[in-house]
Amino acid sequence: MKADGVERTLDKLGKALSTGDVAAVAQCWAVxxxxxxxxxxxxxxxxxxxxxxxxQAVTWYESQGLVSTRPEIEQLExxxxxxxxxTVRWPxxxxxxxxxxxxxxxxxxxxxDDGEPRIRVALTRTT
Length: 127
Description:
This protein is α+β, with helices and mostly antiparallel strands.
């Protein structure tokens, strides 16, 4: 598995987040997965949890006037045959294309039986 599959998944995730397509967002995640934050841990056991989580996130981003994002991969390391560690900066843009804010995420991504890498563990923080 090459790193370009990871990049494709993250590009797909950025486009899905930008268009509010939470079904496409969910396709970028493995189940089960973990979402880590200072507030705690969310254990994700069903795709419906991913869609619910990102439906809330998209609504919040839209309420802040944010309309798009794209991944800026800062570090990508193949940790094993099927596992990648990735650090991604996610700038968020308003309707004029100005960057308003950004987040940085660390992901552990695993290549599934279908050959597609998906997020298994995520830690996101505001930069």
